[in-house]
Amino acid sequence: MAREVNWERNHDPVGIWNGRGKAALVARGHSPTDRRWDGESLDKSLGAFMMIAVQNALDDAGITIDDVDGIIGSAGGQGNGQPLSDVWGPRPYFDAPYDSEDGLTHVTGQWLRQQMGFKNLRYINNHGDPVWNLIGQASQAIADGRAEVVVVTYPNGNLPGRYHQDPSNQARGPAVWPNTWGWGLSGQGFTFNQYCQKYGTNHDRMAPFVVQERKNGLLWEHSYYAQHEPGEFTEEDYLNGRMIARDLSIFDCDRPVLAAAAYVMVSADRAKDMKQKPVYILDHTESQFSPRSLVQTIDDTEEWTDIQAQRSYNGSGLKPEDIDIFAPYDGFAVFTQYYIEAFGWRGVKRGEAHDFYAGDISLKGPNPLNSGGGNMGTGRMRTVFITDPLEQLQGRAGDRQVTTKAEVAVTHGVLPITAGTVVMSTSPD
Amino acid sequence: MAILLSFDIDGTLELGDPPGGVTTEMVRKARDVGFIIGSCSDKPLSVQRKIWEDMELTPAFVSAKHQLGKVRRENPADAYYHMGDRDTDYMAAKDNNFGFWWAHEAAEQPWLEFDMNNHEQIPITT
Amino acid sequence: MARPIVPVPDPATQPFWDACNEGKLIVQYCSVCDRRQFPPEAACRDCGFNFHLTWQETSGRAKIVGYSITYDSRLVQWHPLQPFLNVIVALEEDPVINFHTNLIDDFGTNLSEEPDIPIGATCEVQFVEAEPGRMIPEWKLVK
Ligand SMILES: [Mg+2]
Ligand SMILES: [Zn+2]
Prior knowledge:
By secondary structure, chain B is an alpha/beta fold. Helix content of chain B is 32%, strand content 20%.
């Protein structure tokens, strides 16, 4: 199995993708969603959850393990085996296959192959990108003929203790700049502060958006909130959120959870045999930037997201008015406005996102933004950004099914500084 | 005399996520003995109200964690205590001059030791 | 005042920290690209080489372009100072170049009310001791 680099479409002009319509997303599978792993229950480890999700995805597609010839995945939602929490390995391990982090807090394709008995794989890659990039990479591998039936895996873990806490009193390497001046989440707070200055808006005007996302999320059975905190989330709740880093409150930050999802992607030929209606990939594009200086400013943010949007339009040949379902990431709720304004969805221009939120963004209205609920409505799973557009286009989103046309979807994430964009359609052309 | 007990939820109450050592029975008993009870948590206010419904108890207040000062202003009492499992709980208590118990200490129901007729015997622990 | 977290220099940043100890704020400069670069890196980000990369002293004057206030940091050592101010200032002679500062002299820490941060106001660099022998740049408002 060859190791692959440079599969991304990240150099302008990208032009219409030569794989357009050659790959299709057909099925999804999810594990249960928990708040965290307790460090003991092997049947609730990330590996166990990942196997549940893969089997559910295969069942959804109506295929077996023997049909699969590729696995493309993330080992754990964080690159390079970075810790997710202040409680981390090495820990006392268990009997095989739980004798390392692989299977507990990370899940490689190789581990899945062993545990689940995949026999016909000719392509495995788990370099750990966010889920949009994985869908892009799988589309490329299929379009290039390197695999025909690919399972995309996306496990996302969480452990006891506080997320990403750093106890050190010294800073080294790139961390000297943020840590010396106590700069943690303040980066996103600062960029948002500049946005508010530039456009004369404020934090509280985010309320309708976050409240709507929480509503939508409650209608998705895999949402953390649907499973564990099913009450209505109100504007009063939002406005009373504890500030973490001004102007980001606790309700602008996604809640770390433990969950796994898997997707079945196939060649256009194989798509005809699947149990579910195929959703074709019209384009994938990727991007990576660095700030002009130390800190990402609103100017950086708007320049980067403009490039991301134009690159995607250039790659798909579509215009803003062609996008029916739009799923811009919200891992911090403030991201979404940068993306809507860059893509110009529903005619929203720079500085207008909060006005747009004040209008009708309800699920059954004309502008069903993030109909799956985003991370704010589901927890830090990210996979709703693939599953919801897929289900909307397949017409099986149930209570979340939008009443507007649902033939073309664009999903975009993760950060302004590095992102992948996937364009899906009910038709391969 | 009036003593107010503010309960964190996650990691403190048994109905929290993760569950803590303070059982619904302990909260009920505190209410029955005459403490002013309520919650102060990072959970949305609406979710806190729902948890009190599930406990079949009526709280005197529900509060976001950074609004403990407002709890003091709106609920006259002779002494104020908060309990929780995080440094954010400890800081909120300290900033607002509440006595504080860590969740595992709270599970021992230290308030039951209080002599309600003797103000001097009730310490502020910060 | 000692700082909660102190920087440990590496080969790329050593000249910057050494200059701080001498009371100078320096940034990299690539003469072929005619651009300043901060934070310091092994090569120029534009041309990709270090052939033309030197150090240049700055005026140390900068303008406030935005801020955040940290209430609940992921950096545990900073917890006792919460809430504290995080300000970004842009260099007066080259506003592309920006720096972190806490403006502690002007606003302190443990901000009880939301401070009125004067966006656009001019600040000048000063050097404060993060630990004995280690100076770091901070800014203060020019009154
Ligand atoms: Mg708690
Ligand atoms: Zn250069």
